[in-house]
Amino acid sequence: MKLITRHTAYAVGAILFAAKSKQDIISVEEFYKGTRIPKAFLRKILQILSKRNIFSSFKGKQGGFRLRKNSNQISLIDIADIFQEGLKINECFFKKKLCDSEKNCALKKKIDDIERMVVKELESITIASLLNYNKRRRLK
Amino acid sequence: MKLITRHTAYAVGAILFAAKSKQDIISVEEFYKGTRIPKAFLRKILQILSKRNIFSSFKGKQGGFRLRKNSNQISLIDIADIFQEGLKINECFFKKKLCDSEKNCALKKKIDDIERMVVKELESITIASLLNYNKRRRLK
DNA sequence: ACAAATGATACTAATATGGTATCATTTATT
DNA sequence: AATAAATGATACCATATTAGTATCATTTGT
């Protein structure tokens, strides 16, 4: 059971870093220094994120990425959706034999319910809430 | 996001079949006829399930497997635990850089919370509840 | 003795995940 | 205009997990 993959986590890491930074445009090199996520991998992730409008990108010298959304407009589900292809709900494992049909497979029904619950939770976790969480702890 | 794997689902399928059957000891061949789960694969799954005391097994002619527990004593979490090695909670993805330490990584905390929720749900889904679910639908 | 069963185990195949490398293109700076 | 520093696109490789098969050994009822 892996709710989020490394891609997702790294993407979140990069976004958190950008959200905290006062800098406007941040290069992969700078992301790397801040996060220590392997550079080539990070780069691919950032490219994908900018295709999906989480970042804008700027080519050429002084180029890099700029966060395009406010940190409370990005939730974990957005990121997970990008890297975990729709978090697709489990297909039926069984053929006709076991249930009468896929549509009333009890197992699938129950698992789907749980997945929906998880999706709802992921929706509620925004980048802003993650930033906040850390800020609160630091004050203690 | 795959909450349960095929192994788990097939195991559940086999257990459901055994729970419904009036037969005492059921051979792999018979399981296969009832579930259409690939025979060799099913066999391995049943072997594992009997090592884990979900089934008892009987060698030799007229041998096979007998369900060892009542259907309300087996929950999805038991099966998932067997085939998905403890449903291990996500380790931290980041090095020191991003959070102060693994112990106050907001992302990990949130994901762990969700996972605990999922585990609780899986605990609540027993074989009996799956059987019931189908029974109820059939009556409609 | 034999056939029908599981036990143990080794092996293979497919898929998903994680990660690197490289060439093309763009752009600020000199 | 040349150059260096950046991303875009894309192809590739490595590793781990999941799915599934095959085979020989052992047991047991008939």
The sequence of SSEs of chain A as H and E is HHHEEHHH
C-alpha Rg of chain A (nearest Å): 19 Å
- Judged by helices, strands and strand pairing, the structural class of chain A is mainly alpha
What general outline of chain A do the C-alpha atoms trace?
elongated
DSSP strand tally of chain A: 2
User: Major beta sheet of chain A, specifics?
Assistant: 2 strands, antiparallel
Report the oligomer: homodimer
Segments of chain A where pLDDT lies below 50 for 5+ residues? none
Give the arrangement of secondary structure elements.
The structure is a homodimer of 140-residue chains.
Chain A (H helix, E strand, L loop, with lengths): L5 H15 L7 H8 L3 H13 L3 E4 L5 E4 L8 H8 L22 H19 L2 H13 L1
Helix pairs in contact in A: 1-3, 1-4, 2-3
Chain A binds a DNA duplex (30 and 30 nucleotides) through helix 3.
Task: Write a concise keyword list for the protein shown above.
two-stranded antiparallel ribbon; Arc Repressor Mutant, subunit A; DNA-binding; 6 helices; mainly alpha; 140 residues; homodimer
Can you describe what's shown?
The structure is a homodimer of 140-residue chains. Chain A has 140 residues and is mainly α. Chain A has one domain (6-139): Arc Repressor Mutant, subunit A (Orthogonal Bundle). Chain A has six helices and two strands, in the order H-H-H-E-E-H-H-H. A two-stranded antiparallel ribbon of chain A has the order 1-2. In chain A, strand 1 and strand 2 form a beta hairpin. In chain A, helix 1 (6-20) crosses helix 3 (39-51), helix 1 (6-20) packs across helix 4 and helix 2 (28-35) crosses helix 3. The longest helix of chain A has 19 residues, at 106-124. The two termini of chain A are 33 Å apart. The interface between A and B is large, with 49 and 48 residues. The structure holds a DNA duplex (30 and 30 nucleotides).
